[in-house]
């Protein structure tokens, strides 16, 4: 069982890297969504500020301004809630990426250790062969 697991480490490493890449892509999409929402909220704020100035200058606009202002504030609140939800999902993905990265490092360390043991075993086999050759030479001399 242990040998099968150790031989499958390169495959596990590749799969874990693929998983991390997919998680990072999902996180990137969420970050883009968050940026869009923040930008949209800023646009609404700018629009509201412009409308406040217009309402101050034009008496005819004051009657419509209250409803418009409430509508903008409602939209900004909805956007803020969505930004909060996106932030929660980003944080969850960040944690998931950290866990996946930790698993990847475990696999990579296990693979490095396996390679070191195989190299040590090969070196020992060569040394034993040289020792055997040296011992045979002594018996012939």
Summed up:
The longest helix is centred in the last third of the chain and has 79 residues, at 62-140.
What would you note in describing this structure?
This protein is mostly helical and 141 residues long. The protein has one domain. It has helices at residues 2-7, 9-57, 62-140. Helix 2 (9-57) runs antiparallel to helix 3 (62-140). The longest helix is centred in the last third of the chain and has 79 residues, at 62-140.
- Bin the strand percentage: under 5%
Cα-atom Rg, whole angstroms? 33 Å
The overall average pLDDT, rounded, is: 88
List low-confidence stretches: none
Distance between the termini: 48 Å
Comma- or semicolon-separated keywords:
mainly alpha; 141 residues
Task: Explain the layout of strands and helices.
Blueprint: H1 2-7, H2 9-57, H3 62-140
Helix pairs in contact: 2-3
